[in-house]
Amino acid sequence: MTRPLGVAVVGFGWMGHAHTRAYLRARHHYPDLPITPQLVAVADPEPGRAEAAAAQYGFAAATTDWRELLTDPRVEAVSVTAPNFLHREIGAAVAASGRHLWIEKPVGLTGDDARAVAAAATTAGVRSTVGFNYRAAPAVAEARALIAGGAVGRVTNARFRFFSDYAAHPDGALSWRFTRSHGGSGVLGDLASHAVDLARHLLGDIEALVADTTTVIPARPTVTGAASHFSRADGPPGPVENPDHVHALLRFAGGARGVLEASRVAVGEQNTYGFEVHGTTGALAWDFRRMGELSVSTGEDYQSQSYRTVFAAPGHGDFGAFQPGAGIAMSYDDTKVIEAVGFLRSIADGTPYGPALDDAVAAATVVDAMLDSARTGAWVSV
Ligand SMILES: NC(=O)c1ccc[n+]([C@@H]2O[C@H](COP(=O)([O-])OP(=O)(O)OC[C@H]3O[C@@H](n4cnc5c(N)ncnc54)[C@H](O)[C@@H]3O)[C@@H](O)[C@H]2O)c1
User: Fold this and answer.
1) Residue 342 Cα, ligand 1 centroid: separation in angstroms?
2) Considering the domain boundaries, does residue 32 fall inside one?
3) CB within 8 A of 30, min separation 6: which ones?
4) pLDDT tens digits for 25-43?
5) How confident is the model at residue 288 (pLDDT cuts 50, 70, 90)?
6) Do 142 and 46 fall within a single domain?
7) Which CATH number fits the domain that encloses residue 111?
8) Is residue 344, in this structure, part of any structural domain at all?
9) Does residue 50 lie in a domain region?
10) Ranges for the GFO/IDH/MocA-like oxidoreductase domain (predicted)?
């Protein structure tokens, strides 16, 4: 048995499309899902964008004002895929209206913003899911299971690296991502938050860190209207107010040490997102661009124990919902389908599945600690 659930999407850029496609595909991959999402409404202030979304995907209504969605009794759950500075206001209002919330990371500009949204969801008793989609990759699920099962021994050290070149061009537009008031902490909220979530997901809580940040391109051409990650512009230059790079040393509560690096201006790197985890008897490595491959070194040899490639397969995370055999490629959008399904299941039975607002609060708290450390030059307890 499945029941319909009215959903709305606020903000129709890249992530608005990704969430909508995920809702539409959820039951294709999970036919037993107890909830079938219905596209009720979409909001975006950019002229024509919400109407285009409605025409493309079949939303029943389109508006430029997200507040209208919260007066529509057909809307039971909302995706918040608008820029970071709107997460707190919209996220808290969605929750306070009694609607379930699937919200993109980093959930606001600061840890305080994430905590405010989490408190609103707790008070209202609604379910939440947060867009930390990399943990949905089946190879990452398998890595987590191997680590938990002791396959690499005691974890001693790890590296989490999120490098992108999306802002490497000096003509890259001064979009909302580059101002403190609209983008918050720059690459920290944008990419390092994903890395922090993966680190916590695989190795547990981070208890202390020291971090350094830099802004490599201090000014960018201004732009009028909506601009994405990848837009170029030729307006007069305006200041970049948040970091392009962060490097951090981490101490995990479980004793392991880590290195975390994120950059949005790394020439030569296109979505080089991944990790290496080392233990006393083995090691694991994963690169998002080869999402279905996990490099695994396990055994009893210690030395000369090379990595072998394990292809994601049925039994690894949610792989079996997408493909029947090992090595058949999955995609970025599939991770969003897995995330959507976790959200819908959590609404159906009240149990959280996948990343939720407490994870967003934890990641934002680590990001705040990185900013503190970068300012003072000191180790910071998280
Ligand atoms: N999980 C991931 O992998 C991932 C990837 C990219 C972005 N994100 C997150 O998703 C969010 C959106 O990023 P994006 O890349 O889709 O951005 P984008 O700039 O492509 O799209 C943002 C959209 O929000 C709209 N918008 C602006 N003000 C609005 C308002 N008041 N009400 C409704 N809509 C409004 C814009 O017009 C635009 O269409 C960000 O928080 C970002 O951090 C997550």
Assistant:
1) 21
2) yes
3) 321, 341
4) 999 999 999 999 999 999 9
5) very high
6) no
7) 3.40.50.720
8) no
9) yes
10) 141-284
For residue 113, give both structure tokens: 């913003």
Distance 83 CA to ligand 1 centre (A): 4
- By residue range, what is the domain housing residue 72? 3-133
Does residue 228 surpass a pLDDT of 90? no
> Is 182 in contact with 223 (CB distance < 8 Å)?
no
Among 107, 133, 159, residue at a domain's last position = 133
Has residue 345 been placed in a domain?
no
| Cα separation values, 349 from 47, 70, 174, 209, 352, Å | 38, 23, 43, 37, 9
Pick the closest to residue 367 from 131, 209, 215 (CA basis).
209
CATH code of the domain covering residue 280: 3.30.360.10
Specify the residue with its C-alpha closest to ligand 1, atom 32.
44
Strand ranges of the sheet holding 128-130, from the earlier edge strand across to the other edge: 61-63, 35-43, 3-10, 77-80, 100-103, 128-130
| 341: three-class secondary structure by DSSP | helix
- Assess whether 94 and 204 both reside in one domain: no
Mutate to test the pocket of ligand 1, among 79, 81, 134 (most ligand atoms within 8 A of CB): 81
> Where is the domain boundary, 110, 133, 156?
133
Distance from first CA to last CA of the chain, Å, rounded? 45
315: left (phi over 0), alpha (psi -120 to 50) or beta: left
User: Mean pLDDT throughout 137-160?
Assistant: 98
Q: Are 228 and 180 in contact, with CB atoms under 8 Å apart?
A: no
